[in-house]
UniProtKB/TrEMBL annotation:
Keywords, ordered alphabetically: Disulfide bond
Disulfide bond entries: C68-C85
The protein, known as: CUB domain-containing protein
Gene source species: Lasius niger
Domain CUB: 9-92
InterPro entries recorded: CUB_dom, Sperma_CUB_dom_sf
Presence of the UniProt keyword Chaperone in the record: no
Keyword Signal applies: no
Length: 92
């Protein structure tokens, strides 16, 4: 049986189906902030994590360098980190 959990900043989740929302969603965030959500796997056999972006729009990358030098979402794992910015709604 599947059930969903909704998490926001400063949460830790360990569930197959979790929706992470920004504080006050769907309203925009009008101040600088850091938001951390720790996602733990539910079983040692899990080897991948899929993230589906339903609504995800933050500052665009630098037009010259393509680097996320303003708003950025950082995804870390034990081997590397990934940075995302810009319009990612509907992506996975």
């Amino acid at each position: 049986m599947w059930f969903s959990v909704t998490a926001s900043c400063d949460n830790e989740v360990q569930n197959n189906l979790t929706y992470v929302t920004s504080p006050g969603f769907p309203n925009l965030i009008d101040r600088p902030m850091n938001c951390t959500v720790v996602v733990r796997k539910i079983d040692t056999e899990v080897s991948q994590l899929r993230i589906d972006f339903v609504h995800f729009n933050i500052g665009q990358p630098n037009a010259v360098t393509g680097i996320c030098d303003g708003d950025v979402m950082v995804i870390n794992n034990s081997r590397r980190s990934f940075e995302l910015c810009g319009w990612n709604s509907g992506q996975h």
